[in-house]
Write a structure and sequence with these properties.
Elements lengths: L1 E7 L4 E4 L4 E3 L2 E5 L3 E6 L2 E2 L8 E3 L5 E3 L12 E9 L2 E4 L3 E6 L1 H4 L2
Parallel strand pairs: 2-11
Antiparallel strand pairs: 1-4, 3-8, 5-6, 5-9, 7-8, 9-10, 9-11
InterPro entries: Cell_Adh-Cytoskel_Orgn, Ig-like_dom, Ig-like_dom_sf, Ig-like_fold, Ig_sub, Ig_sub2
GO molecular function: axon guidance receptor activity
Protein name: Ig-like domain-containing protein
């Protein structure tokens, strides 16, 4: 038995709108920990048909980064690795979406 430990933390990233992006998270522990992602404090549910996919190794993949009035992927993300011995939390990573409105400055 081994407490979960984050071995790769997500990093800050700036992504052009509608481009793919990956936030990495790798964890170790015995039993193998379950990785859960959070955005701005809320757990992320990667539903079927969503543009966000939880990768088997623990990363979070965006098919295309969304940034609109209705929905935006920009925010602060972190992952948590959980097994029956406890929880390990990664560092925070900020995802910023670059778009036309930045280029006009």
């Amino acid at each position: 038995m081994e407490h979960p430990k984050i071995t790769e933390h997500p990093l800050d990233v700036i992504v052009p709108r509608h481009e793919p992006a990956t936030l990495n998270c790798k964890a170790e522990g015995v039993p193998t920990p379950t990785v859960t992602w959070f955005k701005d404090g809320e757990p992320i549910k990667a539903e079927q048909g969503s543009h966000k996919i939880l990768l088997p190794a623990g990363g979070l993949f965006f098919l295309k980064v969304v940034h609109s009035r209705r929905e935006s992927d920009a925010g602060v993300y972190w992952c948590e690795a959980t097994n029956e011995l406890g929880v390990a939390r990664s560092h925070n990573a900020t995802l910023q979406v670059s778009g036309r409105y930045w280029c006009m400055q």
